[in-house]
Amino acid sequence: MKLTDKRDYLEEYERARHRGDTYFPEYALRDLSVGLALLLLLMVVSALFGAPLDERADPASTDYVPRPEWYFFFVFQLLKYFSGDMEVIGIVVIPILGVLFLTLLPFLDRSRQRHFRRRPVVTGATVIMLASVLVLTVIAVVEAPPRADASDLTFAAAGIDGHGLFITSCAHCHGDVGEGAPNPAQPGDIIPPISTAEYLASRADDAIRTVVAAGLPAAGMAAFEVTHGGPLHAEEVDAIVAHIRSWESDPPVQLDGSVSAAALSTNAEFLYPELCAGCHGLAGEGASGTALADPGYQEAHDDRQIFDSINLGHAATAMIAWGSVLSHSQITGLVDHIRVLGGAEPAGTAATGTPRYNVDVLPIFEVRCVACHGAAGGWDATTWAGAVESGNHAPVLIPGDPDNSILVQMMSGTHTDGILMPPDGKLPNALIQLVVDWIEGGALE
Fold first, then answer.
1. Residue 226 lies inside a defined structural domain of this protein
2. Digit-coded pLDDT (tens) for 140-153
């Protein structure tokens, strides 16, 4: 400060002191009055407009676009211009320089002039800072992405081709349009189609994503997401799921609904009446199709020939290639059942008619339940012990008493709380009956 300015300032201070203007109570009262007025204004604004809160957080939401509070928009926008290794400049260096300027301002500007026109350096710097903050805030508001489906927002921005990923990662086992193909991990097994209306309507996106990400080791399917040891990132797995879901509007493969339902069971005594009896008769006596119980048929065909007939079908007849729907073990079970119809002895416990967990029930749970009721807590459907003993309200089933078993009540929609499982749609009655029969038969492993 110049000596003349210092002298003038001291003289002004002495005149004010002699007039009796002291900080307390005069200036203190002014400060309190202004503070109280601002507090009252804030209370009125809060009462009239309330806090600008978003909707309750929903972890399953796919259209929420996270954004900072409005007073951080300028920093948020600044980071777009300093991305990657330059982020430290936008988030650390520039803000620190701004704070440092304000801190040093009393030392940089020692003039006693108060009018902004007489302080061009400080006024210019301040205007530039405020204008920069305002412009960056406005740009951030204008460029804010709209709420949109996550698949459109994420995949389009990242340029991820879900169809291309499906072709390179999935088509060699599932076919180009999910029509199914021979299972390279299990010779003789045909992978059922995943692009039918029945399949897509009965599986939520989360269930499909879990299968793609974590795989199905029992069926020979490897995990594909990096978190499970696979080659794909989470966004790429999401893109594949979105591509599979896109088939729902026009399913490439058309199957009868009973076929889709039957494909979940490996119990031959369930499969045969559902899929074969209409043509071959309930006891194999024949109808529009061959009499499978006829001794002549039994003698003329060995197990391999019967298996191939079921697996490959007959182009000149109504017999379809069931290998596109059923697994190797399911077809093998049907071959054994056909032999029983011809008078052979039952081949083990699978042909006795009493459903067992690992053979009959687990395949249903793996497709419709395990995605949610796996190892994450609560009821665990991945093992017999988990299905029988686990759950927040265990036991969920009472061997021999399906009517009072919570599992059956939730599957059939008779639970007192109105709970239906799976939540995305009730299972076919035939599959529910299979679970009922399993519990009624003692819930055998």
1. yes
2. 888 776 554 444 44
